[in-house]
Write a structure and sequence with these properties.
262 residues; Rossmann fold; three-stranded antiparallel β-sheet; three-stranded parallel β-sheet; 9 helices; globular
Length: 262
């Protein structure tokens, strides 16, 4: 889960990483948001301990992808501890030596406007068809992590199943009616906050949907469905999902709702 605490004027925050403690300054990045800023470059103790701890979970990766600049030492250490595996560095601007670079746009928490992230076309060829581990030294909103994942997909790297952590596109999509009933309590249904990886929470409709699924989707689309009509709408949604063997589109749901609640 994202670690969010009330700001009460405290100047610092103690960060605990792999048995080490670092006292970090709190930096204001928005009118109502402060972050504990960690500058990892040169902190060999934290980098080494973190890399050793992470390496055991990343043995299945063929190579690693990180961004300049602060992610490089951590990626290098992890690559070393997993058996001298290669790693690729995403750049924040196009360099003269780069050939046919791939690019994505993203907005990190410390930036005022959107930025671009690039990967050399030659590095993209190294990624194609391989299992890639994404490495970032700090995860705040997850925007940089998602941008790296998008670049890896462009390069044809191993595709993460939509339902798999940490950047699966469907990880925070909910069809189950029982889960939809707890949609307003994210910590009850999420292994870690969607905010960490900059993901969007969404309700989708199908044969597993429930009454709360219909209410939430109707509110999302601005549809006015009377409470007494929701069971009938749900019955048609379930029937559609069972027969079509897929989820409904928003337009298909609108059509069902209109046929019952004109």
């Amino acid at each position: 889960m994202a670690h969010i605490i009330p700001f009460q004027g405290q100047p610092t925050y103690d960060l605990h990483v792999a048995g080490t403690v670092r006292t970090l300054p709190l930096i204001q990045v928005a009118p109502d948001t402060w972050i504990a800023y960690y500058y990892s470059l040169g902190d060999t103790e934290v980098i080494d301990r973190a890399a050793r701890a992470l390496a055991t979970s990343l043995q299945g990766c063929d190579l690693f992808v990180t961004t300049e600049t602060k992610g490089i030492p951590l990626a290098h250490a992890i690559a070393t501890y997993t058996g001298l595996k290669p790693y690729v560095v995403c750049r924040k601007e196009v360099r003269p030596f780069m050939l046919s670079p791939l690019t994505v746009r993203y907005k990190p928490i410390t930036a005022r406007t959107e930025e671009e992230l690039f990967i050399d076309g030659r590095d993209a060829m190294k990624i194609k068809g391989r299992r890639v581990g994404l490495v970032d030294d700090i995860v705040s909103t997850g925007a940089t992590l998602k941008a790296m994942a998008d670049l890896v997909r462009q390069a044809g790297g191993y595709q993460v199943d939509g339902w798999k952590p940490v950047v699966g596109e469907n990880l925070y999509v909910r069809e189950s009616g029982a889960v939809a009933s707890q949609f307003h309590i994210p910590q009850a249904i999420e292994p870690y906050s969607a905010d960490i990886v900059n993901a969007e929470r969404r309700i989708v409709l199908g044969k597993k949907s429930g009454l709360d699924s219909i209410r939430l989707k109707a509110a999302e689309l601005g549809l006015d469905i009377a409470d007494e009509q929701i069971p009938a709408v749900l019955a048609q949604v379930k029937d559609f999902g069972s027969q079509a063997k897929r989820l409904l589109s928003d337009e298909e749901f609108r059509q069902i709702a209109a046929s019952i609640s004109p």
